[in-house]
Every structure is written in structure tokens, then in C-alpha cells.
Specification:
It is built from four helices and three strands; from the N terminus they run H-E-H-H-E-E-H. With 111 residues, it is mostly helical. It has a three-stranded antiparallel sheet with strand order 1-3-2. A hairpin with a 3-residue loop joins strand 2 and strand 3.
Amino acid sequence: MLDDSLTAPLTRTLADEIVGRLTQAIMSGELGPGERINDEVIARNLDVSRGPVREAIRQLERQGLIVTRRNRGSYVARLERQDVDEVYTMRLALERLAVQRAIQYAQPWQF
């Protein structure tokens, strides 16, 4: 479950460093959708107290990467079909705008 992203020594403030490492683990698929986030295991692997790990989990919950269920624990959020559709719709709009601007402002030597 845990690799270097969650076991290497810390170099920044604890909660921020843990947020970064958990985000990296989620984005890389090391921690998959629906997987339980065990604050005790993470704290032990990072050699920190559980407080900063819990703070990091709260931050990631506010960002929508983690879902916490009362008396059940915290889990990596699952994307619903609608979430994926919204992301692709926004990406398509941004990419269209980027192409339009590139064409509008590009110099002849850039083509």
C-alpha cells in the first residue's frame, strides 16, 4: 500500500507535507478510489503523530479527494460519472480556448 511517497523523511511543515504525499499517492493510483485511509499507519510510516495526519485528511476532504464517514473512517473519494463528464467538458472548453488564443496570437514562425 505505501511506497516512497508516504515513507520518506519529511522536509516541510507536517500537515502540508502529508497533504502533498497523500495527494501524490491518490493521483498516482497508489491509493485507489474507495481505499481506506488509515491515519495510524500513515503516521507510523512517516514517524509523526496522528494530529498532522488528521489535519492533512481534513484538508484533502475539503478539496474533495477524501471522504470521511462518521464511525467508519476516511476513504479516497470515488468519482461519479457526472464528475468525470464535468471534468471533460471543462477540459474541452479550455483546450478550445487555448487553441483559439494560440492561433490568434501566434507569430508566423511558430507555425
